[in-house]
Amino acid sequence: MSWLELPAGTGFGLANLPYGIFTSGPDDRRTGVAVGDRVLDLAAVTGDPVHATGSLNAFMAQGPAAWSRLRRRLVDLLTDESHRSAVEPHLHPAAAVTMHLPVEVADYVDFYSSRHHAENLGRMFRPGTPPLTPNWTHLPIGYHGRAGTVQVSGTPVVRPNGQRKSPDAAPSLGPSRRLDIEAEVGFVVGVPTALGESVALGEFDQHVFGVCLVNDWSARDLQAWEYVPLGPFLGKSFLTSMSPWIVPVEALAAARVAPPARAEPLLPYLDDTEHPWGLDLALEVRLNGELISSPPFAEMYWTPAQQLAHLTVNGASLRTGDLFASGTVSGPARDQRGSLIELSWGGAEPLTLAGGGTRTFLEDGDEVTITATAPAADGSRLSFGAVTGRIAPAGTPVGGLGGS
After folding, report:
1. What mean pLDDT is predicted for residues 200-220?
2. Residue 240 marked as a ligand binder
3. Domains of the chain, CATH where assigned
4. Which of 171, 207, 229, 358 qualifies as a FRET site for 376, CA 20 to 30 Å off?
5. If 0-12 CB within 10 Å is exposed, 13-18 middle and 19+ buried, where does residue 116 land?
6. Which among 259, 156, 150 is positioned nearest to 213, based on CA atoms?
7. Is 364 annotated as a binding residue?
8. Around Cβ 365, how many Cβ atoms within 10 Å?
């Protein structure tokens, strides 16, 4: 039991203790830990300068032993009454702080790991043919994104410009007409590797520091015209939103589950029989406050450990701050689809909103919020916080809208 009163329902109890970067006044960014409805200033309470650098990178690079050591110390500080007088002055009301991008993102990779999502898009785009491409059940498909446009939750989503092409017209340049969401889960690398090394399935938690939420916004019309034959480019690179809190991998032991049954035998480096890293995370997607989808992460065909093994099997090096994301999380039911292109079936079946009106894709002014919870070791549910973005008209300067 903590000496700090922890309000019920925050999901930020002692079984969680996620890390983020915050300011409480001047732009003096430092590391904080979410505890109930407070943020604990780690730089102040520990005196360790690694927590005053303005990002989690330096701490993440210290590796699993340091991560576990600090986690044990935090539990002691928050449960032993003798520490109360030293710790309590460094607890800030969460509502009074500003959160920032938690890591300096080194590289960004996005995967395509939900079989339900891949099959839905295959049925839409390639009717009359098998919904999955021949390679899909043999390897985790992914692409390298743009690290510089990964931004913290709350950064305005400016509608991107690009080339669009209707079936019977020449290409035109203009704002995307089919702006979409992708409800995803992200994984943050702490411990790097040397060029030429690979990471085995059993080494996942020796390299990955923690887990966050991601909305990998997608301009479907730009993407549809540009992606053949090389894949996503401008349709994806304009913004990727990341939640401000990173839940330590160590906090997710109770959330580990076996992944779905595989359709094909896997090559040894992807055979996760002995190292299952399915995660029982429950996502929720809200549009302007209304719940429109509840994607289940436990349904994901490819696990994060398999993604990391495949990402590095060719010898590609990892860097501290690398972010890789799951791809859109979708389940088998209509209300479990993690993108509007699925929820509206490519625009053919508009989504009806409870407050009136419909949506096929996002309109200017729309706000999307993705949240998630998972089972915690103490029987409660831990929270990942939220990743939120509001759509601004094309050409809007982000600086004028308060992005941070």
Report:
1. 98
2. yes
3. 19-100 (2.30.30.230), 108-401 (3.90.850.10)
4. 207
5. buried
6. 150
7. no
8. 10
112 is in an annotated binding site: yes
Query: In angstroms, rounded to a whole number, what is the distance separating the alpha carbons of residues 147 and 168?
Result: 35
In this structure, are residues 340 and 360 in contact, taking their beta carbons and an 8 Å threshold? yes
- Is 223 annotated in a binding site? The answer is yes
Contact predicate 315/403, CB 8 Å? no
List the Cα angle 263/141/167 in 5-degree steps: 105
Other Cβ atoms within 10 Å of 401 Cβ, number: 14
pLDDT in tens, 313-341: 999 999 999 999 999 999 999 999 999 99
Measured CA to CA, the distance from residue 308 to residue 247 in angstroms comes to 18
pLDDT at 176 over 80: yes
The answer to whether the beta carbons of residues 33 and 74 sit under 8 Å apart is: yes
Identify whether the C-beta of residue 139 lies closer than 8 Å to the C-beta of residue 384: no
E-strand ranges in 224-327 read: 240-242, 247-248, 256-257, 278-279, 282-287, 290-293, 323-325
Work out the mean pLDDT of the chain and round it to a whole number: 96
Burial class of residue 271, CB neighbours in 10 A (0-12, 13-18, 19+): middle
328 is in an annotated binding site: yes
Q: Say how far apart CA 338 and CA 350 lie, in whole Å.
A: 15
Q: Which residues are catalytic?
A: 117
Q: Per-residue pLDDT averaged across 36-53, rounded? A: 97
| Cα(170)–Cα(328) distance, integer angstroms | 30
**Residue pLDDT, tens place only, 83-134:** 999 999 999 999 999 999 999 999 999 999 999 999 999 999 999 999 999 9
**Nearest one of 282, 372, 295 to 340, comparing CA atoms:** 295
Looking at residue 246, what DSSP letter applies? Answer: B
**CB neighbour list of residue 69: distance below 8 Å, 6 or more residues apart:** none
The string of DSSP codes covering 110-174 is EE---HHHHHHHHHHHSTTS-SS-TTTTTS--EEE--GGGEEETT--EEPPEEEE--TTS--EEE
What is the C-alpha to C-alpha distance for residues 122 and 107, in angstroms, rounded to an integer?
Answer: 28
Give the DSSP H/E element, type plus range, for residue 309: helix 304-312
Q: How far apart are CA 271 and CA 63, in angstroms?
A: 25
- Check whether 184 is labelled as a binding-site residue: yes
